[in-house]
Specification:
Layout (H helix, E strand, L loop, with lengths): L10 H50 L7 E6 L5 E9 L1 H4 L4 E14 L2 E14 L15
Antiparallel strand pairs: 1-2, 2-3, 3-4
Length: 141
């Protein structure tokens, strides 16, 4: 009597195939989850940068810009710490302008962690105008 091998897969082959499929699906889901976390973090930083940009525009439009530190809390819960300081004093002594550096730190809470992003720019202030009146210039005279 001749024993014939039956066509098909053994139980061991099926178990190995299922294990490989489970490992592959786990890796795909972890990559997908990581991408969603990155998208969420990017959205948080984008919103914070937008809040900082709005506050920075207010500071740049201020006609009485003075050195100092200011803190505000927005309606969306962002805490914005603005620091204005004079920079490059030795280089601007002979110029009719002072260079004022504006540094904004936008802070917010995500879960138990505090996140922060910074915006920084320099504004030229006319020295000859009394009372701190500011003139924003876009070029060098």
């Amino acid at each position: 009597m001749c024993l014939r091998r039956a066509d098909g897969f053994t139980l061991l082959e099926i178990l190995v195939a299922i294990a490989l499929l489970a490992i592959a699906l786990t890796l795909v889901f972890q990559l997908f989850s990581g991408s969603l976390n990155n998208i969420s973090a990017s959205e948080d930083y984008l919103k914070a940068a937008w809040e900082g940009e709005v506050s920075l525009r207010r500071v740049l439009n201020d006609d009485n810009l003075q050195a100092g530190t200011f803190t505000e809390v927005t309606a969306n819960g962002y805490r914005i710490e603005t620091t204005v300081s004079e920079v490059m004093k030795e280089k601007t002594d002979s110029l009719p302008y002072r260079a004022m550096e504006i540094d904004l730190a936008v802070k917010w809470r995500k879960g138990s962690k505090e996140k922060v992003t910074h915006l920084k720019t320099v504004k030229l202030v006319n020295k000859s105008v009394q009372g701190g009146t500011v003139h924003h210039t876009t070029g060098i005279r």
